[in-house]
User: Fold this.
Amino acid sequence: MFIVLQAIYFFLPAYVANMIPVICGTASVSGRLSQPIDGYHSIHGVRIFGNSKTWAGLIGGTLGGMIVFIIQQELYRFSFFQSLSLIHYSTQSLLFGLFMALGALCGDLAKSFVKRRVGKASGESWFPFDQVDYVLGAFVFIIPFYVPSALVFIVLLLVAPLFHYAANYLAFVLGLKKVWW
Assistant:
């Protein structure tokens, strides 16, 4: 059971990075940051990512994930957090936090690209891909720094849907999303 806590703690930067775009998407952000990453461009008449993938979400999510990683680095001074940690935060570069957060968001972008190609609308549920896209993206991006065990990977894939639905339900209750899934 402790491995589940360790895996969740390890992956906090990716979780936060994945949740922040929901908040940034509804915040009163103006100008270029509020624009979709795809610039409203399409491929064969189908949007590349869609309106919900904005620069504000990408930048905000990346920064949020990095801030969580910096906090983890600071907490690593305490023995409790050392025992909870899968990596040595004192020796990891801030690039690790950047890559984990950015990887989570790029995994979501890649899923959105494929989702549009298979005819799924923006906001339409696509299980299990909506729930694990950020896990896969973050893992791909952190491989140059650290390769988690297969058990950690499996644990994160299993808990990802729980976090996904909990975060979406909270966003729905707070009026940040129109649907809870």
